[in-house]
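Deliverable D4.2, example record:
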Amino acid sequence: MITCGPALSFMRCLLRRKIITLDSLEDSKLCRCLSTVDLIALGVGSTLGAGVYVLAGEVAKADSGPSIVVSFLIAALASVMAGLCYAEFGARVPKTGSAYLYTYVTVGELWAFITGWNLILSYVIGTSSVARAWSGTFDELLGKQIGYFFRTYFRMNYSGLAEYPDFFAVCLILLLAGLLSFGVKESAWVNKVFTAINILVLLFVMISGFVKGDMNNWKKTEEYLINYTVYIGNLSSSENVTSAFGVGGFMPYGFTGTLAGAATCFYAFIGFDCIATTGEEVKNPQKAIPIGIVTSLLVCFMAYFGVSAALTLMMPYYLIDEKSPLPVAFEYVGWGPAKYVVAVGSLCALSTSLLGSIFPMPRVIYAMAKDGLLFKCLAQVNPKTKTPLVATLSSGAVAALMAFLFDLKALVDMMSIGTLLAYSLVAACVLILRYQPSLNYEQPKYSTEKEALAGSERESMASESQASMLQGHSFSLLTLINPSSLPTEQSATMVSFLVGLLAVVVCGLSILITYGIDFLANLELWSIGLLAALAAVLAIVIFAIWRQPQSQQKVAFMVPFLPLLPSFSILVNVYLMVQLSGETWARFSIWMALGFLIYFAYGIRHSTEGRPRDDDEDSLDDHPGDDISCLGKSATPEKNLLRGPNENKNSSESACFITSERTSEC
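Output generated by the structure prediction step:
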């Protein structure tokens, strides 16, 4: 028995990383029945929600004008960066858990819990808000009769609560939760039907826009806009009058307006990460998950691009109705009845978006409960349907309660924190992972290649031993700029430190650009100097990471342009997080306080990574006093069967993700 100081033991518990065994990659209690097409439909349905029917109008009128197509292009490129990072982890670790699992195997348990806890928040609020939006849209089609009835007889006059309880949204959430409980295959079939209808409606919108569109709507002159401003303002003269709608042309608000529109459009591509939660329910996940993520983002970009182009061609951007742009646009071109087609598409889009929010929520909860970080009862799987039944029904009930009682407008921004934090951590994990030593193995496909994997591990021992010979060198500036050709523990530790430094610099840069924009605009010397210093440090850090040796191990999909692409993804996500209001961060801190209470009271003591493997239970029964906990005791690691007996460092284990035994860090 090895003892250590309580403080050191406690820190090791917070930073212990999840070890994924060969058997755990193969074995799953969930039903492996989804195809690549199912994943694409799930990603498209979740991402291409009702926003495509509303967001294009809001951004075009307020920020971008016709250049909204460029805004969507920029936003799509930024989203693809995050998507590619998810795709690589999906190829490496085809298990349920999404960003929670990816963080757990790379940077440790505490960060994993923070990520998973925030994902749960995002999915709960997303499910509740989309359900209320579905209810409101359906009520609009019925002439607002449902809302009038409930406002009359069930009105709630309390701060923070909704105007009236939304029974329709509750029924909708419980219906979908019940559908998911029956089986993932049935849910995927329903999702494909609604997604197909949504795509057909959007194709109709695009074709209609190009048929009835007018290129002159992209060429309005500033003089014309000034005259229109005079007309709507009932002004007597156009002298000294500036246009209220920009300078005209393709970019009426300039390139800054296009960038502002891109920041808003970025949120339209959130949702693809639900694909990453299907690792244990999809056939051949190492290929299907990367293909599903990249293809769904491509389809969504084409849809947003086409709809926004059609909308701004059908009517001038300054006449677009922000709340219902497409119905008004069809009225403008004389195709009034087409608004009913748009209404059907909008309901289908809301349905798939709702399913895309409620589908990953119980799977993240299931993964955390299975790892012991949440209550074990939430990890129960129905033996007939092979779905996480308790997690599905309990999360659906919580989302239904929120939709029933609360005004969610003030909480919607909290969704963004969880999602953007997950994107940032996954990008950082890719950076750390790719520079780890001992990655010379073939990631297993299922049982057909398990034996081949073990052989690959044995063959790689020669290169691993070469790497270990290089680990004795002390650190110097020369080794940072001109390191060895093979990754070592020293180079891996350096990359981890540099990634942490990169995060700090990115936070400083984002805060300066957000809150010091006026000082920068006035060219104040201190702000310009600070901006230049932060940018220089950022460039040096990225260069230093680039100089470190990468692992030569290959998987089905790998992020290109390392380390630039993940670094820029972190910058975009952190910048968008800094844009959120102080009230949003205050509410977020309350949610995190509740999460930490659960983790430190329950999760840290019941984590499966703090226990020996099930294979070793017999030996533990013979020594019941050899308990592994975070109170100062540690298990004695056994010999690793896949690697050399001297190579049992946790960093190597987490880098490979694969080992034949689990050891405790505390």
